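@channel anyone free to eyeball this complex?
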Amino acid sequence: MARTVVEVDRLTKIFDKVVAVDDVSFRVQEGEIVGLLGPNGAGKTTLIQMLLALVTPTAGSISILGQPLPQERQKILSEVNFSSTYVSMPSSLTVMENLRVFAKLYAVPRPHEQIDQLVERFEMTRYRDCLTRNLSSGQLTRLSLIKSLLNDPKVLFLDEPTASLDPDMADKTRRLLREIRAARGLSILYTSHNMKEMEQISDRLLFLHRGKILATGAPPELLRTFQGENLEEIFLKVARVGIAGSAGNGGDQK
Amino acid sequence: MSLQRISAMVSRHLYLYRRSLPRMMEIFFWPLLDLLLWGFITLYLRNFSSSLPRAVLFFLGALILWDILYRAQQGISVSFLEEVWSRNLPNLFVSPLRPGEFLLALMSISIVKLLAAAAITSILAWYFYSFNIFLLGASLLPFVLNLTLMGWTMGIVTIAVILRFGQEAEVMAWGLAFLVQPISAVFYPISVLPRWLQYLARTIPSSYVFEGMREILQNGGVPWISLFAATALNGAYLLLAVLFFYRNLRIVRVKGLLMRSGTE
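replying in thread with the prediction:
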């Protein structure tokens, strides 16, 4: 039986009087790819930020790799990683310099090997000595993804990781993530507005709306439950009407 | 505490400085301009040497020491701003880097910067104006240490405020040191200040250093009481600054402001 790597229990975040995440509970198993789906303002990013200890929850608890957050923050952060389209890297450093700095921060064993391997897999070899500020947005995204895989994380948090990639590179990235998952049991919590991508890559989806989990299940299961042709149709229903899903808020368990 | 993570942060800034002309100017060019300006002023004042004995020593000594304080503060606040400008702060805060290691890394970077700036200004002051900073003798080290500690304190307060209120508070990085300069007795003794400002000046560690420097250049001897007062004040202020930083970091995490750093 797969081990639980992320356990979220009754998590709530209130900013002033705005409830961003409302009494949310779920688990992510080892090797599972879980997609967080929801309209803007649904609470996806706040949820990921709480899982990364960037935001302190108002209530509830988080346990990652069996360790409680924030008490074991450093231990957890050395075994997970994160990539987001909205976070950048020092623009006056070259690709290799940035990766060397982060490899050191994560105490990566054999950093040169690891960097070379990832740079090659993400087809960034020819940009090794390019200043980061001269990279295109797609190349920046790939650099951020390489950074996020440097420490062989056990759990990866990705916030719209393929938003600026062309379809070819986005497909390669998804394939690579699945390969790493198959080889090492990597677990991924993933947000994207690309419904097709979510359908392809996710083992399970969590539909968030106004901070609550409205529905959870594998993509085909959700299509059946909501009688939709595709995820986009379901997304529009959830975003516009806020239908109550089968699993309901706090619904969990794979 | 991990030396590897601290050195990772230091190397990130060394990579940056190695190829950035504007940043190299910050270390070498501006101190050089200050030195030339004050050097020529003091050469002019030398003509009135009977009324202003040792003017060259006073002004150039003060300038070099002031630059140490300023560079120490900038070493912390501008290095932090580099992370904000490059939207890299979230990457650092989701890494295993501890906030304490982050502060130590910024302090290490500031030492590199101030040593480079102090070395170049000291050499040029000696070359152009025959001013030898080592005239300050055994007091030089505690003077430099105290000014560095005060620069760090101001740098840490600055980044704590930027962390909490965003880039609008960036002006503190450039202006905070100059806010305390008039009451630091850098170029004139505390006694010329109005009485109420004299009281305020005595709460500023740097005022003891500059008063002490003039004391040495005029009468010789080590001003132990001034040095002790400066060190005690610096120790207390640095501790309060670090506590202020941690408090603001906690607030920033509660308010969810870390991801917004550099994006507003």
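from a first look: Chain B has a mean pLDDT of 87.
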